[in-house]
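Lay summary. Proteins are chains of building blocks that fold into shapes, and those shapes determine what they do. In this project we predict the shape from the chain. Here is one chain we studied, written as its sequence of building blocks.
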Amino acid sequence: MIQATQSQQRGVMMTESALKQVILLRQQQGKDLCLRVGVRQGGCSGMSYTMDFEDPSLITAADEVFDYDGFKVVCDRKSLLYLYGLVLDYSNAMIGGGFQFTNPNANQTCGCGKSFSA
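And here is the predicted shape, written in a compact code that computers can read:
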């Protein structure tokens, strides 16, 4: 697992395969983007994970920024309450592949792994 630098290791962590995949996807966008992760209401279990690229100029003082060798992962502080300790992984398996969220704060997760309750 790739750890965020310095004391930010506790927030959002990524495996090496997840980091490689998001960097590949960012290169396909053709821009210098950061990855924003968060939560929103909805999904089978009550809350859904969100993950999308955005321009680094949209990072605010209310965001936590985790640096992975120059690639920034951003999370707003409200979402971080639910995501603290999250590990983002990626698998290219034909069945069940894609990004997977391992969230130590989730009391229950749905079968698809994209929503949870805390």
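What the prediction tells us: The longest strand covers residues 34-41.
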